[in-house]
Specification:
Elements lengths: L4 E2 L11 E2 L8 E7 L2 H4 L1 H13 L3 E6 L2 H10 L6 E2 L2 E2 L3 H25 L4 E4 L10 E2 L3 E2 L5 E2 L5 E2 L7 H8 L4 E4 L2 E3 L5 E3 L2 H12 L4 E8 L17 E3 H9 L8 H11 L5 E6 L3 H5 L5 E4 L1
Parallel strand pairs: 3-4, 3-15, 4-12, 7-12, 15-17, 16-18
Antiparallel strand pairs: 1-2, 5-6, 8-11, 9-10, 13-14, 17-18
Helix pairs in contact: 3-4, 6-8
Length: 293
């Protein structure tokens, strides 16, 4: 594909190249989020990354790592606090997750991918202004209690710096993005990795046919958390709401499904939730749970 760059008038002093609409090729782009117990297990992680490296299409890897941050935080005397599955990120915790997510986990993944001849580059939302975010304000729970989440970032897909993303993607660099954003005022923000993958998919769908795949240790969305054969092959929003009402879903999967529906309802080509061991099958829309708009 012929390169076609244009320059914004206000960027002449500090050039930032970006793709013009002429470059909207409609190519497939796989955005794959990995988390859960997979990152904690070196053997599982290597197996997953080997499959990821073999994908020929354009791709981005978004990773979590909450359990590792919790383990290291405990060793350092930093207590982990959660509200509705969301980590409260105070001053100590933002330093912790920046080190663990942006350093230890991110660079470990990049090093493994490089050994597999996959030219990965480790990034956070602050690098290249890739993902600016807004610090979350206080939230009021149903109980009336006001919660301050601390240094937690919320993302608007319209603010994603798609020009910088295209520079990496179109030059055969494989972004590996840690769940960290920035507030454009000098602060790193902790951002949910499932949300980051969803919002990034929406933003880049203007340029590519985006396939969003959530990988974790389960075979998909299960009606029985203890039965790996109870996979829901296709999940419509009406059915999902009924399952939630009947409390038939494991609470920990709900934010992932919510983010999946947010993506598919905003024009993403395909969204699947499934087992990291089956990544190549999920790429081919085989197995897992397909989210239906």
């Amino acid at each position: 594909m012929k390169e076609c760059f244009v320059m914004k008038e206000d960027e002449k002093k500090n050039p930032v190249f970006f793709s013009s609409p002429l470059e909207r090729s409609g190519e497939a782009l796989f955005i794959i989020k990995i988390g859960g117990n997979v990152i904690d297990d070196e053997s599982n992680l290597y197996s997953f990354l080997k499959s990821f490296a073999s994908i020929k299409e354009k791709k981005i890897l978004v990773h979590g790592g909450g359990k590792i941050a919790t383990t290291i935080g405990n060793k350092l005397g930093i207590e982990s606090k959660y509200i509705d599955g969301r980590r409260i990120t105070d001053d100590e915790t933002i330093d912790l997750v920046t080190m663990v997510y942006g350093g230890l986990i991110n660079k470990k993944i990049v090093a493994i991918l490089q050994s597999l001849k996959c030219n990965a580059i480790g990034l956070s939302g602050a690098d290249g202004n890739l993902i600016p975010a807004t610090k979350r304000g206080n939230k009021t729970l149903l109980s009336g209690e006001a919660i301050n989440y601390g240094w937690v970032g919320d993302i608007n897909p319209d603010n994603i710096n798609t020009s910088s993303w295209q520079l990496f993607i179109n030059n055969n660099l494989i972004p590996v993005i840690a769940p960290l954003t920035h507030d454009e005022q000098g602060h790193i923000l902790n951002t949910n990795a499932d949300t980051m993958a969803s919002v990034l998919s929406i933003a880049l769908s203007k340029w590519y046919h985006v396939h969003l795949i959530y990988c974790f240790e389960k075979n998909g969305v299960l009606t029985n958390i203890h039965d790996e054969t109870s996979v829901i092959s296709e999940l419509h929003e009406k059915f999902y709401n009924q399952l939630k009402q009947d409390k038939k879903l494991f609470a920990g999967i709900l934010p992932k499904i919510d983010n999946a529906f947010n993506a598919i309802n905003r024009g993403i080509t395909n969204v699947v939730i499934g087992n990291s061991d089956n990544l190549l099958q999920l790429i081919n829309e085989e197995g897992g749970t397909k989210i239906i708009a």
